[in-house]
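R.M. (postdoc): so does anyone remember the format we settled on? I'll just put the structure tokens first.
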């Protein structure tokens, strides 16, 4: 068995979850995604599409604006988008990393599968010691085998949904360094509390499906309150999360990789804004775009659409380029930095 596929969890581990019913983990509401019978139609549209699939070759980034981090400031919270759903957080003098897909391909193979438009702005081998890595689910574009291998000896805790620990243990992460949580369960660390919350998605690697849980996360750093949506479609659970744990100072919301064929499991920008409003989300920090070609829309459509919606709804967006550090509250960013990397838009 190829190591990067991971390993299925034991039944006694996943049976403890209320979300595990009828032999698989369940969504809060009825949910469908593209099946094998849909693939010919999807592939036909994929081959015929005329959208701009990737940014220009100049689309490369390095860690920037690091001087805003004052390691003596134990109350400040800083964020750095590393591409897709991966976000590095500095809080209370410690580093935390969300969905660290920092490898070259969203695939179990290094020679095929969706390739990053540009390398991670911070090489995983050069990351500092990590207090905790937080995972939303086990898909290849969120849980990356090469990244875990590069990080596992510098991470104090991996905080994951039920069942995901099996992959990590299979890859050599000590069991005592992993914490598994079901929806609405919390883990309290030194200066932070992370709570797993519902999401509308699915899981699986190789030929498995829904044998590990998926979730979003409420991230509390002292008095600072951040929502990390991970990967999800739209459902009415956002209002419940907002009622229980909001209002939030900032919400990290996925806005890309949407399509009619898998509408239920990915938010488009309009749905992400609606979810954000129900969450009482504070500031809108977009993720899950501008890194891989995972759908039929252009690489820039999600952020262009979001900016238009934010103007209409008067929402404050925080839209840093990959690698750029921003403060949780004091975070001026250029919402149009990406336009110059589009051959279509740069001519307008």
């Amino acid at each position: 068995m190829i190591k990067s596929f991971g390993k299925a969890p034991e039944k006694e581990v996943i049976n403890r979850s209320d979300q595990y019913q009828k032999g698989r983990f369940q969504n809060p509401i009825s949910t469908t995604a593209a099946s094998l019978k849909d693939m010919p139609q999807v592939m036909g549209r994929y081959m015929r599409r005329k959208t701009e699939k990737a940014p220009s070759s100049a689309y490369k980034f390095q860690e920037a604006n690091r001087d805003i981090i004052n390691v003596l400031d134990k109350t400040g919270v800083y964020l750095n988008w590393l591409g897709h759903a991966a976000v590095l957080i500095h809080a209370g003098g410690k580093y935390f990393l969300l969905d660290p897909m920092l490898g070259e391909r969203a695939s179990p193979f290094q020679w095929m599968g969706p390739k990053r438009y540009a390398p991670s702005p911070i090489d995983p081998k050069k990351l500092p010691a990590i207090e905790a890595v937080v995972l939303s689910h086990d898909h290849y574009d969120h849980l990356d085998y090469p990244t875990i291998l590069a990080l596992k000896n510098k991470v104090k805790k991996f905080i994951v949904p039920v069942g995901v620990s099996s992959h990590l243990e299979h890859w050599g992460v000590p069991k005592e360094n992993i914490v598994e949580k079901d929806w609405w369960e919390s883990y309290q660390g030194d200066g932070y509390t992370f709570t797993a919350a519902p999401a509308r998605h699915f899981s699986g690697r190789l030929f498995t499906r829904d044998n590990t849980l998926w979730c979003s996360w409420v991230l509390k750093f002292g008095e600072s309150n951040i929502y990390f949506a991970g990967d999800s479609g739209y459902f009415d659970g956002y209002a419940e999360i907002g009622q229980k744990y909001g209002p939030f100072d900032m919400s990290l919301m996925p806005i890309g990789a949407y399509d009619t064929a898998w509408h239920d499991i990915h938010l488009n920008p309009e749905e992400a804004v609606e979810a954000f409003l129900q969450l009482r989300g504070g500031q809108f920090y977009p993720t899950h775009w501008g890194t891989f070609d995972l759908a039929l829309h252009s690489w820039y459509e999600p952020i262009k659409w979001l900016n238009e919606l934010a103007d209409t709804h008067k929402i404050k967006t925080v839209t840093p380029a990959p690698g750029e550090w921003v403060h949780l509250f004091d975070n001026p960013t250029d919402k149009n930095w990406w336009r110059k990397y589009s051959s279509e838009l740069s001519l307008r």
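R.M.: ...and that's the designed sequence above, right after the tokens. Also worth knowing: Helices lie at 11-14, 39-48, 145-151, 165-170, 237-245, 269-279, 301-313. The first helix runs from residue 11 to 14.
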